[in-house]
Amino acid sequence: MCQWTSADLTSIGSAQLRLPLSPRSLSLGLAYLSLLFLASAALGGCPTGLGHDPFRILARSTNCSWTLERHTRSYNHLEGDVRLRRLYSANKFFLCIDKTGKVDGTRRKNYPDSLMEIRSVSVGVVAIKSVSTGLYLAMSKKGTLFGSARYNPSCKFKERIEENGYNTYASLRWRHGGRQMFVSLNGRGKPRRGHKARRRHPSAHFLPMLST
Fold first, then answer.
1. CB 136 within 8 A of CB 151
2. pLDDT for 147 beyond 70
């Protein structure tokens, strides 16, 4: 990242002040400064320490806000953060856990078993619990999803927001052949084995929707 220092701007200002104050010289000087600030913007830097120097004031008037490309990343929630959401899959099903511990998908928008309490247990790691049944979403060593009455390491999932805006949930505890295993619902709303889903599969993509 390019960083402007007070010495840099002062030297530029001093150099410009020594130029003859003809219209042509002043125009060239301003053009030179504009090129410098454009180069700084391209490199992602913003001038700092502007003070009262006229050239620094010119820098201050330059827009120093740039949009950074959003990369796939984990949510950096603080430990203990709790959200009430319905996990809506890219296959148009809401994830639910019934009182028997069966994990399934439903198209019913306000189905009680689909309202989830998503609690951050560490940075980027969450526990998902059905509010109505009190059962935690868990994944077995074989990649099978089920509802657990007790919170344990199999109930921890790594939550990530993907480039398309959907979330993925991968088991923190279990892997298959070194690959992550993901929570997923197939085209019929049935849970898939974790090792059969991949991060880019629509079946593993969920939107945490606010409860209505």
1. yes
2. yes
